[in-house]
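FAQ: What does the model actually see?

It sees only this:
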Amino acid sequence: MKHLTNEIENIWQEIDELLNTGQQTFSSEKSIVFNFALKFSKIFPDGKIDFETPLFGAFSDGSYLDLLITTKNSSGIDTKIGFEFKFPKKVKHNSDRTNTRQKIINDLKRLTWLVENNRIDLGYFLCLTNELAYTKSKTYLKAPEFVTHHGKTYCLENHFPENAKFREHIKPISPINFNWRYFSNGKTLIENKIFTFLEPILISK
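And it is asked to produce this:
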């Protein structure tokens, strides 16, 4: 299992380096998902890959999981890994920050629900952005409890934030820590980096 999680982190690091050194560009979240799956398949060629897998039923923000990978562990037993991705990107205007912050937390709730109900064995949330608002601590006028800033932790004792739109009542089953790369002295996007990547958030029992 450690080999598997290490390789997932290595792939995420490789995508970071490719994007931030200008060797590769990604136009959308779906292109990130596809590129990640392609790199995974080269390392684990026997893995089974499925995009937009219907796993949730009546769950907030749709019934589909971005990426489902099934591979065998060292004992030859199938391991199902579910991935949710977010790629809020500022171009000419800001991205829809209020809605996206809520969707980010909801992705964590969705992955937690899947792991807790044995639909998947591991859940990974992967995110990158070129917009500072997601990484810096501030007071929001709308959906103020849905925060994603550097250093934010959602503890096991408390439920994830919820509202009428994202209504599921779910507690974390493993620590949820938001650690953005290239963050120093309250600032992100340093060292000539274009995009800041979130350290992969792993959800497991």
